[in-house]
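Worked problem 6 (solution included).
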Amino acid sequence: MCKPSTGSVDMEGFWEFFWFIFVCFAFVAYLSVLFSIITDLFRDHETSGWAKALWMIFLFVIPFLSAMIYVVVKNDGMTRRSMEAAQQHIHAQSDYIRTVAGRSPTQQIADARELLDSGAINEEEFQAIKAKALA
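Solution. The predicted structure is:
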């Protein structure tokens, strides 16, 4: 039959739920570390292919120990390669923004002045381009 209700919180259920949340967090944290290690392995051009293959095998055969060893041994290289990748990403992003944003108003007016001087456009068209560039 059913146990009579005592009105107190079921502590066993609380600890089971707490343990479940802790294990899920630890698993997600390990996956994060594992993916960053694998990414670093592919970024590392100094390590040979055989060494990378051995690291991958160890990461899946002895997961926690090999991940800890890799992070301790390759920490400086991981940081350097990660910073280089971030700088490349920032540089590519700023180049893209510059190309999408177009030319500056000064450049647009200078180009329009050249067209006006060469006779390709008249004064009204030059003023329209100038007004659009300054708007």
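Discussion: The chain has a mean pLDDT of 87.
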